Automatic annotation (TrEMBL):
Biological process annotations from GO: thiamine diphosphate biosynthetic process; thiamine salvage
Class in the EC hierarchy, top level: transferase
Family to which the UniProt record says this protein belongs: Belongs to the Thz kinase family.
Record protein name field: Hydroxyethylthiazole kinase
InterPro entries: Hyethyz_kinase, Ribokinase-like
Amino acid sequence: MRALSMESEPIFQQDWAPRAWNLLSKLRDQSPLVQCITNFVSMDLMANTLLSAGASPAMIHSIEEIPDFTPHAHSICINVGTLSPNWLPAMKAAAKLATKLGKPWVLDPVAAGASGFRLNACLELVGMKPNVIRGNGSEIIALSKASLGVSKGVDSSHESMDAMEAAKSLAKASGAIVAVSGAVDIITDGNRVVGAHNGVPMMQKITATGCAVTALIAAFVAVDPLHALEATASALSIFGIAGELGMDMAKGPASLRMHLIDSLYGIDQAVLLSRAKITTL
Ligand SMILES: Nc1ncnc2c1ncn2[C@@H]1O[C@H](COP(=O)(O)OP(=O)(O)O)[C@@H](O)[C@H]1O
Ligand SMILES: Cc1ncsc1CCOP(=O)(O)O
Ligand SMILES: [Mg+2]
């Protein structure tokens, strides 16, 4: 068995970058419509990230519009960042309809461990079968343990690697692909674990980069819904590459934000193939 896995691993690793390029090309060709029910802080960066990648964002969150609009979306991104009781029914309605229609949807459990209301809302949404859950280390640990955390709020007090076991157990329990962002982004279905090693630390100094990459994951899953783990790893690696390219031109967080968006728009095959770092962990 060991000989088999040692033989197959390099082939698996070599496949990642071309696969990520193939998915980005598909995304640019198909321009999937991504419905985003997201927090006020993230709306601008999220929409611009989706547009620069080639997708079509729509920040449509009113419960009255879900029956008409959600069936047209190719995927849905649900983010609880600025949660209040009157938003939760729309999130649940969109999640329920997406699941019924077989449309992929992705959950961002922002600050899941910050309050009982937020944690319970996230747990209810997890029970509604998201295809992917993407959070930072502290969020995935809180969700996996279903307990409030010693939390800084929306920022993580944990490294992504600290959340490895939590991510695996959440993936097994929920049936979702679970992604933990950080210096190394971890992506797991509960058995396979993949690491995306792109990105720069300064990305943490721009608000809503986590929210934006979750929406990017939704766009990638829209073009390859049957391979959500591969789509998620590709999105995280490509967003990280955009951060790396952007950092070469940036003077600080504000200019990185601008250059990251420009770089995501301009990523070509040669750059992606030479920079993507996705490995089995
Ligand atoms: N130390 C780091 N080095 C490189 N990239 C990072 C680092 N920390 C976060 N990132 C990247 O920044 C983006 C946002 O991640 P993160 O800050 O963990 O999310 P959140 O904003 O939800 O807390 C992700 O694309 C992630 O890969
Ligand atoms: C600052 C803040 N407060 C509520 S939501 C939000 C944005 C969080 O964005 P991210 O999770 O990407 O850091
Ligand atoms: Mg976040």
